[in-house]
Amino acid sequence: MNIDEKKAAQLLLQAGHVRVISHASPDGDTLGCASALLRGLSQKGKAISFACSDPVPEKFSYLFNGLTFSQGEPDFVCAVDIADKQLFGKVTAPWAEKTDLCIDHHGTNTGYAAHTLLDSRAAAACEVIDRVLRAMDVTITPDIAGCLFTGITTDTGCFRYGNVTPRTHEIAARLMEQGAPAADINRRMFETKTRARLEIERRALASMEFFCEGRCAVMTILQKDMRETGATEDDLDGLPALPRQIEGVLAGVCVKEKPDGTAKVSLRTNDPLDAAALCGRFGGGGHKAAAGCAFHAASGEEAAALARREMVQAVTETLEALS
Amino acid sequence: MNIDEKKAAQLLLQAGHVRVISHASPDGDTLGCASALLRGLSQKGKAISFACSDPVPEKFSYLFNGLTFSQGEPDFVCAVDIADKQLFGKVTAPWAEKTDLCIDHHGTNTGYAAHTLLDSRAAAACEVIDRVLRAMDVTITPDIAGCLFTGITTDTGCFRYGNVTPRTHEIAARLMEQGAPAADINRRMFETKTRARLEIERRALASMEFFCEGRCAVMTILQKDMRETGATEDDLDGLPALPRQIEGVLAGVCVKEKPDGTAKVSLRTNDPLDAAALCGRFGGGGHKAAAGCAFHAASGEEAAALARREMVQAVTETLEALS
Questions:
Q1: What number does CATH give the domain B195-322?
Q2: Which pTM does this prediction carry?
Q3: Is the ipTM of this complex over 0.95?
């Protein structure tokens, strides 16, 4: 059942112990939602607990500073920024069937929860949580403002993407007035590169090759690069987007050798290329502008070389067919 | 004489032909200011002209679309986002002595103009222009809103930097409501790289060296790199920000060899280092977190080497004094 923020606030205020759940592979929005809501519930005297199928990445740990979680079973379960049961992940999957309230901003939300508060025009689910907290008459402390700002800035690429509305900026202005340390959060989210990230980025850029008269760019990241730079998966964040950012590139390919000896391809395309169709040829899929697939060979490096060849070939054929 | 926006509006409305001047090596803020102000003056029936010592980079050319400039001499000269006579550059240097009004946001403004409208808390000079246009009773068209948004988003690194205030977000919200194509502008400003840019970025990253136990990072861009990659000044935009982004770096130095055989330093700092004070030692200046200075030697490469040595030495001494 679709409800509004007043009803959502009412449901939450009637509960005794609320468990808030973030989606697997948690990002700034789902964690910003959870931490802000948990702080608001705590302020209102509720027992609180939190669950997520994956650990909270170190860069987001400040969101949960100072929160005290209750033991025992909750009498109310609230999923935040989770569009679909599948996205709970393994550990929290049992709660997907017992979700009392889902607060979300994905137009694709499947309505799996008993009650759903959905605003698909919101740039971040944190925009919706902000409304719920105010409907609950929670005082927006600097901590809460910081949690909400984190979700909004991360889900909009720091106010860069097309999902930003005037309302997004208005909320950001208010959260800053309420004490959100915006510059600190942005620096932490967007401007801090580990030395390992710098080193892997240097190598990734150095690996970039161009095909099809500059319309296809291919970047390769090998396990050797990961080992030698000490980079982790977190350090690769955003790298697959780089090849398509080059002027004239219609197909930006990022080939990554995985530790299991396969090679994973992330493909980003511009019109008229269809990333999902191109990756579909190799058993993968995704969206029109971003898709993925995988290649297998005797070794990871061979799989990466195969992936490069096959992807360049597929892009070449598609571009020829279009011309 | 320091004046407020009402007085600035009055002065501009009394003029017949206003020449607006942007600083040399123009960026999004000085050009956003100029184009927005020119559009507002044109709307008010003024003759307008524009001057800048360097050409308008291609990526900013849309700002001036549809503007018609008058021949002949102006009876009023307005400098925008120019803190100091030195920053006019060669071509417009003569106007530095005859500036009737300067509209700026640099705390270091030298007060060289007959009248100065300065708000050093504004994240971008475009925030100040916005106030002047409203004091002039100009209708903020989508074109004007786009020009102002361009200045604000470029001078704040897309709302990322510490200079952003709640007011910055409030203005952005209003400009979007007034028709600024925010997502398009952000994509154009931040998400498109030329091939030459990619090549110079590869080299710049490869040049990065670390000093002071990782607290000082130095990037060097030589004329040789520019020649071999075909990069222009435009392609260097944002590169000076990279060294400070590395975890643990308090002083990010970018040394650039200029075609005239000097070396220009861009310094970005984090607390407790003061970029303006550090560059001040070498006759430069700027803000607390971002400043610049120049070095001279027998050749450009020697000047660059000197700049590296002197900056590392200055940072080392300052860090030692602080510890």
A1: 3.10.310.30
A2: 0.81
A3: no
